[in-house]
Each structure stands twice: as structure tokens, then as C-alpha cells.
Amino acid sequence: MIDRDRLAANLEAIRLRIARAAVRGGRDPRSVTVVAVTKGIDRATVQLAYEFGLRTFAENRVQEAWHKFVSAPLPSDAELHLIGHLQTNKVRQAVRLFSMIHSVDRLRLVEALARRAEQEERRLPVLVQVNVAGEAQKHGCRPDEALALVRAVLAAPHLELRGLMTIGPLTSTADEIRQVFRRLRVLRDELQQQCGCSLPELSMGMSNDFEIAVEEGATMVRIGRALFGA
Ligand SMILES: *Cc1c(COP(=O)(O)O)cnc(C)c1O
């Protein structure tokens, strides 16, 4: 378990790096939310992060999140997001547990989430996950499938479309990573035009590439290791 001082120092360093990247990108640092990725992190450490001011947390597996947070929910001013692949047989739990789903990547999932959100009588914010780099091992829709997904979410009254999400390519140069984030932003701009809708959120950037993501317009950076250690 990471100690207090180390966590505080990591968070301060991340905030500083975000602020500098925002300035380089001509953006307001306050437009970037740190999403603390707590997979593999114990509940007590999550609480410590909360005490240091973090309010947005994310898990990539429903089961782990369920065990960690159902018995010990986050304070009511904090949010828990799902950032990993969501199987349709976990949709019921996911709709109960999460404030936002970043990983909506297929029509069947849109339908399942829409139905369950209606049954739970809530409006669920979602992001459409796009596999911009076209890496075979990754989830996310193809860029040319995003329009159909966006339209399906917009047509579902119990879902609230907030934007797009992507995962940067893993083994690439900084320039290749930048191209991927830029393409997500351009795709967002095109989809807003085509649908006449607003897609304010861009969830992109992790520990190894969040500064590039901020320079390219990220509004949510998903950070695990840089915050909690490897
Ligand atoms: C684990 C994970 C992250 C955080 O990765 P780090 O490299 O630990 O910052 C971000 N996004 C997704 C989808 C993840 O699964």
C-alpha cells in the first residue's frame, strides 16, 4: 500500500504536469479531470485519494468494483466510472454501481444499457469508446462505426451521451500517440456536426501519455500507476 506522502507527492506532480500540458495546448487546466484508476488498489487507499481531493474514480472490471464499493460506497460527492470492457451479462450491476460508462462500443451494449437504465429509473451518462488505432487486441468500435453508436445512444432517453473515449497505442512513438488522440478529437468534431449534438468529453490519456492527451484536448485523463505506483 502506498503511503500518504508518496500519494500526495504523486498527485501534486500529476496536477503540475497537467497544468503545463494544458498551457502548451492553449487550454484551461481546470477543464481536465483526473480520473483515478483504482483497479488493484485497496479501498483504504481510495479513501486517502479522496481525502487529497480526488472526486472521480474508475475501475476496469465490474466484479472488482462491486466487491470494493458495494460494501463501502464512495462519499456522495464522488463518482465511480467504468473504463473497461463491459459484458452484457454485467450490465445490471454496472448500471447500479457506476456514474458513467466510458466503454460503450457496440449496439447490443447500447440496447442493454438503455433497457436497464430505464428499469432502474435513472439517466446514465456514457462515452462511446473508439479503437482509433485499429489495434486488434483492443475493444472499442471502429471510427466508421461511431456515428451509428452515437445515434443509438442519442435515441435512448435513459442514456446521456457525453463524448468519446480511446486508449492510446501501447508501443508507439510520441508522435504516433499524438495522432491517435488528435484523430479522436477530429472524429468528435465531425460527429457533433453530423448529429447536431454536443460531445463535450474526451476521455484519453493514461500514466504514460496523459500530457500528450491534454495537449490534444482530453477532458478526462485516466491515471493509475502514476498516482498509486506500479
Ligand atoms: C488501467 C487503465 C488505465 C490506467 O492505466 P495506468 O497506466 O495505470 O495509468 C486507464 N484506462 C484504462 C482503460 C485502464 O484499463
Quickly list its features.
230 residues, alpha/beta, TIM Barrel, globular, binds pyridoxal-5'-phosphate
Read across the widest sheet, the strand sequence of neighbours is: 7-6-5-4-3-2-1-8
Low-confidence spans: pLDDT under 50, at least 5 residues?
none
Radius of gyration equals: 17 Å
List the ligand species. Answer: pyridoxal-5'-phosphate
Name the structural class.
alpha/beta
Please estimate the helix content.
40-55%
> What is the CATH-assigned architecture?
Alpha-Beta Barrel
CATH topology, which one? TIM Barrel
Shape: globular
Task: Please provide a written account of the structure.
The chain has a single domain, classed as Alpha-Beta Barrel (TIM Barrel), CATH 3.20.20. It is of the alpha/beta class. β3 (79-82), α4 (91-97) and β4 (100-104) form a beta-alpha-beta unit. The N and C termini lie close together (11 Å). It has helices at 4-24, 43-51, 62-69, 91-97, 107-119, 146-154, 174-195, 210-215, 225-228, and strands spanning 33-37, 56-59, 79-82, 100-104, 124-129, 159-165, 201-203, 220-223. α5 runs parallel beside α6 (146-154). An eight-stranded parallel sheet has the order 7-6-5-4-3-2-1-8. The chain is 43% helix and 17% strand. The protein is built from nine helices and eight strands. Bound molecules: pyridoxal-5'-phosphate. Pyridoxal-5'-phosphate is lined by residues 37, 39, 60, 83-84, 167, 206-208, 222-226.
